[in-house]
């Protein structure tokens, strides 16, 4: 059995590491899973890294892995892209069909991305498949409606690799400094806005020094104030909903008394 792994290109050290994952697993099952991953185009080292990231993949059957790989190919992920997706997000194999479909459907139907754009998003950031669809939709809607960023720029920006809190903090900070404007209905602004990728793909230090021209202390104070503003806004909404519910109950009681 060990010779089979050696023939696949695994060193003795790698074989020991491989057998240290899910140690109670039958050798034949381990061999079948490894074989399927190699058939996807991964080499021995990449296969080991995939299984170290997600040891639960070893408990899947070869048939399950084949079916999942076929499904990912139907999302227009060619072999090169598929290898990247698997390498960066091996737990994709353990996701339900429903979960993957929900994410893809949000991109196509709610965000109105083209098929090619969805493929590029999955290639650039396969971890989106692990996120909640409504969170992805909100993130897109924020930059599309609030910042005026179009689909093509969203795809190129790396938006889905960036936490929404970081996007909002940087955007609103620039906006209040007068360095960013939401485009009007005609898509026009009085200043030239930076591209989204220029705002979110740089380190915090570069963002402050080269874009916002502000100190870390100023940015930290701003983030605390913004968090407080949003917290108060949430409380106001909750209070309004509670008042509306109370009024509804009161009207219902009055109606019951009249009856």
Name the assembly state: single chain
Rg over CA atoms, rounded to whole Å, is 25 Å
Described by the principal axes of the CA atoms, the overall outline is elongated
* Number of helices in the DSSP assignment: 14
Keywords:
elongated; mainly alpha; 14 helices; 0% strand; 259 residues; single chain
Describe the structure.
By secondary structure, the protein is mostly helical. 68% of the residues lie in helices and 0% in strands. It has helices at residues 2-7, 12-19, 27-39, 44-53, 62-74, 79-88, 97-110, 115-124, 133-146, 151-157, 164-176, 196-200, 204-212, 216-258. α7 (97-110) packs parallel to α9 (133-146) and α8 (115-124) runs parallel beside α10. The longest helix has 43 residues, at 216-258. The radius of gyration is 25 Å and the shape is elongated.
